[in-house]
Specification:
The complex is a heterodimer of chains A (306) and B (361). Chain A has helices spanning 3-30, 38-56, 59-83, 88-107, 132-137, 141-159, 161-171, 173-178, 183-209, 221-231, 236-259, 265-285, 287-293; strands at residues 121-122, 138-139. Chain A has 306 residues and is mainly α. The radius of gyration of chain A is 19 Å and the shape is globular. The termini of chain A are far apart. Chain B is built from 14 helices and two strands; from the N terminus they run E-H-H-H-H-H-H-H-H-H-H-H-H-H-H-E. Chain B has a two-stranded antiparallel ribbon. In chain B, helix 3 (57-82) crosses helix 12 (280-290). Classes of the chains: A mainly alpha (306), B mainly alpha (361). The interface between A and B is large, with 51 and 53 residues.
Chain lengths: 306, 361
Amino acid sequence: MDMTQAIILTIMTAATPLLLAAIGELVVERSGVLNLGVEGMMVMGAVTAFAVAQLTGSAGLGAIAGLLAGMVFSVLFGFLTLTLVANQVATGLALTILGLGLSGMIGESFIGLPGLKLATIEIPLLSDIPFFGRLLFDQDPIFYTSIVAVVGVNWFLFKSRAGLRLRAIGDSHSSAHALGVKVVRARYLAVMFGGACAGLAGAHLSIVYTPQWVENMTAGRGWIALALVVFASWRPSRALAGAYLFGAVSIGQLHAQALGLGISSQFLSALPYLATIAVLVIISLNRRMTLINTPASLGKSFVPER
Amino acid sequence: MRIELKKRDSLSSLFSILSPFIALGLTLIAGVILFLFLGKDPVKALYSFFIEPLTEVWSLHELAIKAAPLILIAVGLSVCYRSNNWNIGAEGQFIIGALVGSVLPVVFHGWESPLVLPLMLIFAMIGGAAYAAIPAFLKARLNTNEILTSLMLVYVAQLLLDWTVRGPWRNPEGFNFPETRNFGDYAVLPRIIETGKAHWGFGFALIAALVLWFVMRRTLKGFEITVLGQSARAGRFAGFSDKKMVYFAFLLSGALAGLAGISEVSGAIGQLRPVISPGYGFTAIIVAFLGRLNPLGIVAAGLILALTYLGGEAAQISIGITDKVTRLFQGLLLFFVLGCDTLIHYRIRLVLGTAHKGSAA
């Protein structure tokens, strides 16, 4: 494997958790729900995946456990915002605070332990394609999942009846409800899908990206994923592009730190966060596009009239 | 079994008062379950968490020290959240306030004058407000999501503080430790009473809460904040500007967070270090909601959340549980607070069975 391949590979590894979490949140927001707890669900996914991998000796089980942990956490969010119609912004924050606290507690005894790494799956024949074969077809299952999620969600949202209904709910929950669509149930499912994606994204961090547990190891990636959804103007293909762009920025700054270009490491570490702000600003310059694509019911609570 | 909500005709005044207490009760119950799960005696654990820190004079002073930044920040945030401006970057504004406020005692440490301390406080408020002005400007001008920009700026502020303290402001006589020189006596916030450690930051917090309580209750500005928060459209009809409110809310909360930052550094720490806050800016969000966005409620809520910090430390020493429990308690508390607030707006009914007249959710 040559240098270029190696760099592209690290970019892909850095982009995968962002992409997964963003795709999940994209579906949630398309249903009109704003879950700001991505960071919390992700960090719970990370700690659960690491812990289960340690205890069972299987990284695969760890990944599944991480996914489930994210999903369980998202149900908490759903119960508060959908059943009890609590404020979505505040509940999302609560989910993040709770996730960071609980993961810190669970993970305390795992700090410093060497982790298990999820094995790659080599797809025969395809992986023999020159240059791209090794990059695209000799990867870990979570990477494949992230790509399948992009294609699947794109198909679901824009080609399936259920997806059409979901978008209708996101644009006007009262109209959808009047037409007989089960708004709360659909939103629960969307929120749980988002939780599963965030949990798996977290699992990727602790059993693929850096197989170890470090407190707060998500380091704001959940929030970056939220920004990516806005950047993508709620379209899966653009989320893919955005996630890889961010992967490139974060890997680029790591290489720059290693090279020691005389730029302080703190400034380079701040780059992904500054890039997020820049991207949000650039997107909001085009106000019409944002207005057209934003789900009109985003963040609004819904209580069915009975 | 399903849960059904029915909107109340008017807000329940009973539950407006009761809901924070129900939430606290539920958090305690969750605490008992948690401690049982960890194999600790729950009575002993809760005692050392919530009662022990209140039994000694010195720890009451610690309580005031911890509550000061929480109350100062949360009072500002309550104005933001009431006016529907989601500033969640108070942690960053706290740090920048501390940084800008420390210019005089660190860089111009030779200047010893009674003017220094008041100037430090003013610098810190300007610094915090200026940092909060970034998401405010982006929101008012371009409609950029303020939640994400204000949060991203927290990470940037943390890295900037880290760089400053390890780099240009490192104490030349400090044996290479990453910290600035100690503030001179003239730059240290005085204690409230000579016998205890609590400093004037707590006084600032009480003053800020009282002033804002008056503003919210008795002035047109308070009315404007509430109206614009409930409906920007209605506010515009009344001749209020929602754009100006964005700036007002962010600058005010930024200034208060900055003041909290310099009070902590000058009153409690005495120098700048790479990390100066155990997440006060985020915990203050919980304080704001537990206090039901009411400045006086926030004072009580700030003391309670300050207690969880002390309790975490105490419980770590006396019964050997990790102080991570503090964060867990804080998160749970916010969860329960938000859930219980539903009681104020809705009647909750448990419906058995699923059969319903065709419009089941």
